[in-house]
From TrEMBL:
Gene3D superfamilies: Vaccinia Virus protein VP39. GO terms for biological process: methylation. InterPro entries: SAM-dependent_MTases_sf (IPR029063). Residues 1-25 are annotated as: Disordered. GO terms for molecular function: methyltransferase activity. The keyword Transferase applies. This is Class I SAM-dependent methyltransferase. Pfam families: Methyltransf_24. Keywords: Methyltransferase, Plasmid, Transferase.
Length: 237
């Protein structure tokens, strides 16, 4: 499957990007020469997508707010055709569902989690009347999405042989050191130039996450944009 994504869709992606640029220009948006194509397409998407066009009511337990879910849906809409998204720390499946339901049907979502229940999750179960977290629970919640592959393994140590370039990387796994730093360092290397690295829980009491996200942005010479607790960084193109 990785080789198909790597080699089987390059020409289609190029064609789709070109047509998207044309549509954006047709409504008066022009791409400055210094702006990466993927970044430009995201800006186009933001200008054209209205809230009713976004699918955010998954019915799946989540800690993301409605506005944070809408922002993630916008980012998903901007993934090029035949692109790839990574949802790390996929939990019950809301973020995977958001990406799969709002992106072009040709994209593929890799959802990674251990799906091992932790004591703190009891609060989530009570709040949402949710079943205990498990891989089976995730698959039940996302059963209607044909373009999601779920992988029940710890990250990043289980993925030394990963070879699939990523357009959108959503990080919501362990927010504490050293895991958050290891994941960001490992997976950001596979994000395509001009791709998006984003995640959740960017707030003052998540000190390890703040430190690592800010360090990643500094390394890229980029800035961290926030929408509630959802953060995002553009990887330089």
């Amino acid at each position: 499957m990785g080789l198909q994504i790597l080699t089987g869709s390059r020409s289609k992606r190029s064609t789709s990007s070109g047509s998207s640029e044309s549509r954006c220009r047709s409504i008066g948006l022009r791409m400055p020469p210094e702006v990466n194509t993927f970044v430009f397409l995201i800006r186009c998407a933001y200008s054209r997508i209205k809230a009713p066009d976004l699918k955010t009511d998954s019915g799946i337990p989540t800690l993301l707010s409605k506005s944070e879910s809408r922002r993630l849906a916008q980012l998903a809409k901007a993934i090029p055709a035949n692109g790839v998204a990574l949802d790390l720390g996929a939990f019950y499946g809301h973020s995977s569902w958001i990406i799969a339901q709002n992106a072009d049907p040709s994209i593929h979502v890799f959802a990674i989690d251990t799906w091992k229940r932790q004591p703190w999750m009891r609060n989530v179960e009570i709040r949402f009347s949710a079943p205990p977290l498990s891989w089976k629970t995730f698959r039940n919640y996302t059963a209607g999405c044909r373009n999601i592959s779920s992988i029940p393994l710890p990250s990043p140590e289980s993925f030394a042989n990963w070879n699939v370039p990523i357009d959108l990387y959503f990080e919501d796994a362990n927010h504490a050191a050293p895991t958050i730093g290891r994941n960001l360092h490992f997976w950001s290397e596979y994000v395509k130039p001009g791709g998006v690295i984003c995640g959740w829980n960017y707030r003052h009491n998540s000190k390890d996450l703040l430190k690592e996200v800010d360090a990643l942005a500094s390394r890229f010479g980029s800035k961290v944009s926030t929408h509630g607790q959802l953060w995002e960084i553009m990887k330089p193109g």
